[in-house]
């Protein structure tokens, strides 16, 4: 269920409480919830995931991304969360994993990672960053 983007990042569609245990077994040190609360009736509430993560010894942060798009504040928040995770892998989730992947891509571009490398890693996990490629290129160019 978890898709590996690189050695430090997994993305996933909506997770359940049982998935928190699976994340712990993979050594995940941080779970990032990119899903707004109440987006659908079948989603596990963020508070329940946060409580299960805490019980498992995994840090948790919510950085909701609605269908309205991405903001620099969200990119900065993910960057700060990734820095606090240290060497432990991170699991980010949303409805399908796409918003989590795109937010990761923007964050990596802002850090100066090559847009082609970002696109290749995302594609390797089954995600397409082309809808935000112009923004990824712009953020990476500003870092260079």
Based on the model shown, name its key terms:
alpha/beta; Beta-lactamase hydrolase-like protein phosphatase-like domain-containing protein; 144 residues; Protein-Tyrosine Phosphatase, Chain A
* Largest sheet strand order: 1-2-5-3-4
Number of strands: 5
Q: Percentage of helical residues?
A: 40-55%
Number of helices, counting only DSSP H or I runs of 4 residues or more: 6
Strand-and-helix sequence, N→C? EEHEHEHEHHH
- Average per-residue pLDDT, rounded, comes to 95
CATH superfamily: Protein tyrosine phosphatase superfamily
What structural class do you assign from the helix and strand content? alpha/beta
Spatial shape: globular
CA radius of gyration = 14 Å
| CATH class value | Alpha Beta
- Distance from N terminus to C terminus (CA atoms, Å) equals 35 Å
CATH topology: Protein-Tyrosine Phosphatase, Chain A
* CATH architecture descriptor: Alpha-Beta Complex
Beta-strand content estimate: 5-15%
The count of domains is 1
Largest sheet: 5 strands, mixed
pLDDT < 50 runs, ≥5 residues: none
Organism: Novosphingobium nitrogenifigens DSM 19370
Protein name: Beta-lactamase hydrolase-like protein phosphatase-like domain-containing protein
Domain Beta-lactamase hydrolase-like protein phosphatase-like: 2-110
Pfam family, one: BLH_phosphatase
What's this, in brief?
The chain is 47% helix and 14% strand.
Question: What topology emerges from the helices and strands here?
Answer:
Elements lengths: L2 E4 L2 E4 L4 H9 L4 E4 L12 H11 L2 E4 L9 H14 L4 E4 L4 H13 L4 H10 L8 H11 L1
Parallel strand pairs: 2-5, 3-4, 3-5
Antiparallel strand pairs: 1-2
Helix pairs in contact: 1-2, 3-4, 4-5, 4-6
